[in-house]
Design brief:
alpha+beta; 6 helices; 22% strand; elongated
Length: 180
């Protein structure tokens, strides 16, 4: 009987030890994964590897371009290729509320402010496509080197621009109000 008690006690102890070992093994593996991920992200370059230096002009290009001036737009998509060809391409998506002509007028007025911000330094050309209901209604290409801020906002923008496309409604609106 004494042997049976010792054997039972030994089995119970072994069972608890196995349970404890299994649970601590899972924890240890998770801790190892966390430690491995932390050490991988915290690796610092050795002194043998030279760190790249960024010129001030290049640092400017890495900034996000502020498109908040286009307050009437639903969204603005930016394609910044200043490093390659000194060009910024904007796609301004307008809501369907205003007419195509008024939507174009809003974007041209807001382009005046856009062209004066520091975020776009280094861009010689800025192309602005104006979409409404997923349809291109206007497109202008602005030579920012020719842009001069003047008293008349739209005239200042258009003086430095080439009109690439305007649909009939936009042309009619501009002619009626003598805008373009």
């Amino acid at each position: 009987m004494k042997k049976l008690k010792i054997f039972s006690l030994l089995c119970i102890c072994t069972f608890f030890v196995l349970i404890q070992a299994c649970s601590s093994e899972d924890t240890t593996q998770e801790e190892n994964k966390v430690l491995t991920n932390e050490t991988a992200t915290n690796i610092t370059p050795t002194s043998e590897t030279p760190s790249p230096t960024i010129k001030p002009e290049e640092a400017q290009h890495d900034l996000n371009i502020d498109t908040s001036v286009f307050s009437y737009a639903e969204s603005v998509d930016v394609d910044d290729t200043r490093k390659v060809n000194k060009h910024i391409n904007l796609i301004v998506n307008m809501n369907e509320g205003p007419t195509a002509g008024l939507a174009t007028e809003h974007v041209l007025l807001q382009t005046y402010d856009f062209l004066q911000q520091e975020d776009i330094k280094g861009a010689d050309i800025v192309t602005i496509s104006i979409n409404q209901n997923d349809t291109l209604i206007s497109k202008i290409t602005v030579d920012s080197r020719k842009f001069k801020a003047g008293e008349h906002l739209i005239n200042s923008v258009l003086a430095a621009s080439k009109i690439d496309h305007m649909n009939d409604d936009v042309v009619e609106y501009g002619e009626a109000l003598e805008r373009w």
